[in-house]
Amino acid sequence: MQFLGKVIPSPLTLASGILGISFSSLQRVIRDGAGMVTTKSLSLEPRIGHEGPIIAEFEGGLVNSVGLTNPGIDDGLLEVEKFHNEFAGVSIVSVFGANSEEFVNLARAVNHSKGDFLELNLSCPNVEDEFKRPFALVPEKITEIVTAVKAVSNKPVLAKLSPNANDITLMAMLAEQAGADGLTMINTLGHGMVIDAIARRPVLRNNFGGISGPCIKPLALKLIRDAYKQVKIPILGTGGVSNGLDAVEMMMAGASAVAIGSAVYERGLDVFKITRMEMEAFMSEHGYEDYTDLIGILEEN
Amino acid sequence: MQFLGKVIPSPLTLASGILGISFSSLQRVIRDGAGMVTTKSLSLEPRIGHEGPIIAEFEGGLVNSVGLTNPGIDDGLLEVEKFHNEFAGVSIVSVFGANSEEFVNLARAVNHSKGDFLELNLSCPNVEDEFKRPFALVPEKITEIVTAVKAVSNKPVLAKLSPNANDITLMAMLAEQAGADGLTMINTLGHGMVIDAIARRPVLRNNFGGISGPCIKPLALKLIRDAYKQVKIPILGTGGVSNGLDAVEMMMAGASAVAIGSAVYERGLDVFKITRMEMEAFMSEHGYEDYTDLIGILEEN
Amino acid sequence: MKRDRQTLPIAAIREENPSLRTFRFDTQLEAQAGQFVMLTLFGEGEKPFSILDENADSVYITVKNVGPFTNRLFELQVGALVSIRGPYGVAFSLENKRVLMVGGGFATPPLRFLAKSLRARGIDYLVNVNGARSQADLLYVSDFEELCDRSLIATDDGSLGHRGTSVDVMQDILEEETFDCIYISGPERMMKAAVDVARKYGIPFEVNLERYMKCGVGICGSCVMDPNGLILCKEGPVVGHETLAKVQEFGVSHRDKTGRILEI
Amino acid sequence: MKRDRQTLPIAAIREENPSLRTFRFDTQLEAQAGQFVMLTLFGEGEKPFSILDENADSVYITVKNVGPFTNRLFELQVGALVSIRGPYGVAFSLENKRVLMVGGGFATPPLRFLAKSLRARGIDYLVNVNGARSQADLLYVSDFEELCDRSLIATDDGSLGHRGTSVDVMQDILEEETFDCIYISGPERMMKAAVDVARKYGIPFEVNLERYMKCGVGICGSCVMDPNGLILCKEGPVVGHETLAKVQEFGVSHRDKTGRILEI
Ligand SMILES: Cc1cc2nc3c(=O)[nH]c(=O)nc-3n(C[C@H](O)[C@H](O)[C@H](O)COP(=O)(O)OP(=O)(O)OC[C@H]3O[C@@H](n4cnc5c(N)ncnc54)[C@H](O)[C@@H]3O)c2cc1C
Ligand SMILES: Cc1cc2nc3c(=O)[nH]c(=O)nc-3n(C[C@H](O)[C@H](O)[C@H](O)COP(=O)(O)OP(=O)(O)OC[C@H]3O[C@@H](n4cnc5c(N)ncnc54)[C@H](O)[C@@H]3O)c2cc1C
Ligand SMILES: Cc1cc2nc3c(=O)[nH]c(=O)nc-3n(C[C@H](O)[C@H](O)[C@H](O)COP(=O)(O)O)c2cc1C
Ligand SMILES: Cc1cc2nc3c(=O)[nH]c(=O)nc-3n(C[C@H](O)[C@H](O)[C@H](O)COP(=O)(O)O)c2cc1C
Ligand code: FES
Ligand code: FES
After folding, report:
1. Does the domain at residues B2-45+69-193+212-294 carry the CATH identifier 1.10.10.350?
2. How far apart are CA C155 and CA C133, in angstroms?
3. ipTM exceeding 0.90?
4. What's the pLDDT band for B125 if we cut at 50, 70, 90?
5. Chain A nearest-CA residue for C43
6. How far away is chain B from the Cα of A192, in angstroms, using its nearest Cα?
């Protein structure tokens, strides 16, 4: 199948922030069966991120406050180059800037790399103290940043949206109008707190974080569906996918490909291979020939 | 312990919309161990609500689209009268209006009942087609409705807030400033879609609904915590509580009492008795004498 | 929270009479007589139906065409996808050895399933009274004959068996014999009459109640009965005589889709 | 997703030397030698620590005071609440019967636990080489003496045992005897030297690696090794000779807290 013009062996993609800090991780994930990989969100300067614990489990998934740990765009892009060095695999370079100028500088840097796509993380809920309200919640910011990036970027651009936006369909439309080539949705749901009652303390060092995993799947499905009905650009669906049925549902809702994050924790890196097998089993049982046959075919009641 | 001046045997409360359609249900829930009960949200006219399926399970909880089924305020208040008839129990009458006039009329009706508290459902995510954006997402609406209701109501008034509000602390402050005596938080998270991949259809007849259950607990804890730090009025916490530890966590975050909804499905009506026992076991093990010792004692990192 | 919803095709449809059809689904529910499923027709709605029978391969329900949902179901052909969840609710007890079953109208499917289950378990003496308006409305006559030691019929118009109601026949039988338990399934007025008779003779009984059900899992409150708050979808639909004594609305009132009280 | 985090008081603190303390927690982890826990100090952070020992009642870790987190831990008294999760990672294998253990500096705790486990399981011949800068830095000398058939010591300054490194002693031993497996735990340079020796003699080995670890559960990517993408927190910290052959960064480089490459 294809995604934004690139041939991919499977629609299953590594979500940003999971393992994807080094070329070794990224290559490994492709070898283990993913169709594409997304890097951690890279910023202009290196970032240590928050102190641990950065991940707290709860009944419905994970709450994380990694805080955008990354080696910075220069070292990050070295990893992307090494990833592509004599290795076949499609990469999505995720970047995070504090304003549209930073996004533009990041996009320019990515232009010179072998990275296949550029993903704009407009929606990290973990760095609000530092960067204020996520851009993905502010219509004008979406338009401003996507427009500015599209003016300089030579890569197809994905805008990553936040489930916290009150009107995500509007955000999707604005991103499309500003020239985005695709959407990634959804980022983690902000904000969750996991409490350790014995210690009377939040588990996360940063007190709260973004919610991911099975618990956000119904939200992701609804938002992807709404966006799918409004925009023509492809959607990289993400949020709570942990098995083949989840991935099928997400594609039926309207995703053209599906990214997996938290389930790597739950099921290990095999999740890509197993999920793909589960999807294919479903498809052959129910008479679907191609992954693309699934996209958007949900019939609403 | 006390909640808004009423003595209650336990902080565990039946959340609005669960069973609470008739005096029989409400009395039963008290007999089965709840400290207070909330009625379904009553509107001026009777409402059939949405067609079934109105409830879809998923890994993290429930998605419901009941659509505010209720017998209307007149018949509903007859149930409240029967509930209080020779029966000791504290009731919260939940009401839902299409605008502030309707809320005022509902509040006036409740004035003449034996109901103990009035809860304003400002945040039902299931009737947006009909009523547009939930009031709890619109700062001016919170102020307008709470102010208008407080001007006529002779009952303590709880404003029920939505986790979809971008800035719930603001909403909490506005409700307090407008005179609310307490807050109920949170309502279900809007919107979730559960998909039946075999049928290629959303499970819910209404396609989507509000998300509740364990999956929303981290969100509820964070929002309750944020509100607790900003307002002085008590908070009736709700969202994903299904055992004693959950309830303890919610009180530590800042809730003065805790309402249980979806867990009635998971654990049956015994959930009130069992959760109370679990809370007491925790409290005696860790040296808390009174439920009120728990309120807000979380220490942030 | 686990999913228990199954989406599957209608495997077979049998017409019992112009307004009554039996639908087969090839799945396993491990249901017992008296339990029900919630059936979804996509784009239409979801409604409760008693399980008529279950064997190693299939589950059956019998449906009367009475309104929009059942109309739509009657339009569907074999192969159409529907969704079922369940089984839900409390089944008839199976411990009794001398048993009388009293059925009225089209509420007899659960009694047929019950007769089969009692037989399979081993029973000393099983009597069935099958009542309907007239011969054409009688269901499963030969099945009951086969499964029961005595199988009696009552029709309002006397077109078959005793002229009168199944409760009349029940009364006659109780003059002659006694039972460990009486199982009753039919329209509520008929069940009320049967219950009065059973009480008169001091015989334990179980009734199969119906109330408006929306969630089927004890959360929405639609099916809750007054004044004891019995949650019929979870604690029924089969209710024993001791519990029924507390359900004062039995035979008197029920609630509509909004929760308002209506007289029966 | 289940929780495996436990919050509990420090049950006891033992000072091994001024910069090294052993902490006891009264809980059960069912840990094996080589595995680690993530330890949270509230308001401070969370860091990985090897398990020194576990018995029926308690789990022990030994900590060297090297920076802000360990400073803070050294300020805590018995009774202070901390949180641990784990055990995580791959342990040393226990199948071998003729075993050489080579430890350097303060990375010997896992070897002590390993010696105990091998003994408990039954072993033919167990030799330990314990190396440190000087006598004062040597750990568990009497424990190793008790648990092993031969227990040798190397100090850089010759203040006890052989003057030189544990790798020198290892080399001498391998000239005389052979083993099924060599278990190596120490600073990375020392392990690199030991691995070269083990390879020279063609003896299988397992090393106990350390990398910066933040999540401990294979999700954050901090601990992943080049170029094969070994996820050390899940697929290590104990790594066998075959896998190690693919980990080209061993002894060469590691990554800092941001993921940038640093030379070793
Ligand atoms: C436990 C239980 C078991 C049942 N078993 C069977 C069965 O085996 N076969 C069968 O044909 N019918 C059964 N019913 C009744 C069946 O649910 C209704 O016939 C069906 O819902 C009618 O829907 P409709 O849209 O076709 O008609 P409507 O026009 O909507 O209703 C016609 C009548 O059906 C009843 N009804 C409607 N909706 C419901 C509902 N959600 N819950 C309960 N009753 C309702 C009411 O009495 C109503 O007056 C059962 C009901 C219950 C509660
Ligand atoms: C699998 C494993 C087992 C370990 N077992 C032990 C043990 O049994 N006893 C013990 O004292 N120490 C052990 N460590 C090292 C221990 O984690 C660090 O000493 C500790 O994190 C230092 O934190 P700090 O804030 O005190 O010092 P810092 O000033 O933060 O760091 C000092 C040095 O400690 C190391 N370090 C710091 N943070 C980490 C981290 N998150 N992950 C790995 N290394 C880190 C780095 O080498 C750093 O240069 C182990 C590490 C790993 C990966
Ligand atoms: C530990 C962790 C780190 C993440 N880091 C990033 C990040 O750096 N950039 C980003 O755009 N999204 C990040 N995300 C969000 C994921 O890419 C994904 O959108 C989200 O987790 C929902 O998918 P899931 O439910 O499959 O995990 C992170 C998620 C997790 C769990
Ligand atoms: C089936 C169902 C019906 C509900 N109906 C109402 C309602 O009528 N009014 C209201 O204010 N909240 C309603 N809610 C929301 C609950 O009161 C509660 O705020 C929410 O479910 C979160 O709590 P929980 O996770 O314990 O279920 C409903 C929730 C469910 C699951
Ligand atoms: S049908 Fe919902 S409670 Fe019984
Ligand atoms: S420490 Fe996070 S992946 Fe290993």
Report:
1. no
2. 5
3. yes
4. low
5. A301
6. 4
